[in-house]
Design a protein that fits this description.
Elements lengths: L14 E5 L2 E3 L6 E2 L19 E5 L12 H42 L10 H31 L1
Keywords: Coiled coil
Length: 152
């Protein structure tokens, strides 16, 4: 019941087989009480006369009736730890994106760009002013280069 093999699902194999309150593992290789570790089978594989029933994966509980409490707890703690790691990763990604956005904004403002979406006339005018600002910077640079060239 501690098998961590990945579950592969064929088209139409969307059912979990249940016997004595436990799910069949993939490839009919034993039993598990944990839905994540259960195999997926076609509904036609159920054999009620042999005590094997099928339940659609969307209707199956996360843990079967006969799942051992210690395995259930261990699995839950593992899922919680994985989710906490995912939260940490997402927070780091968010912080990195905010830093990139902030530095892009600062770089854009430094060069006179408007990085905001403008949906009014004033916004478009600001963008035009940013373009004019860039042209002015080019003129200043050219004038400085010309002056430096004359001084030598």
């Amino acid at each position: 019941m501690t098998d961590k093999a990945p579950v592969t699902v064929e088209q139409g194999d969307r059912f979990l087989l249940v016997k004595r309150g436990l799910y069949y593992r993939p490839g009919n290789q034993g039993y598990t009480g944990i839905k994540d570790r259960a195999g997926r089978y076609p509904e036609s594989d159920a054999r009620p006369e042999d005590g094997i029933t099928a339940i659609h994966e969307d209707e199956a509980p996360e843990y079967s009736q006969a799942c051992f409490a210690d395995l259930k707890e261990k699995h839950m703690l593992g899922k919680i730890a994985a989710l906490e790691e995912e939260i940490k990763r997402l927070r780091l990604d968010l912080a990195a994106q905010e830093c990139l956005q902030d530095s892009a904004y600062k770089a854009g403002v430094k060069h006179g760009w408007n990085l905001c979406v403008a949906d009014d006339e004033d916004g478009y005018q600001h963008i035009a002013n940013g373009t004019e600002h860039i042209a002015e910077l080019k003129r200043i640079r050219e004038a400085r280069t010309a002056l430096e060239g004359r001084g030598s």
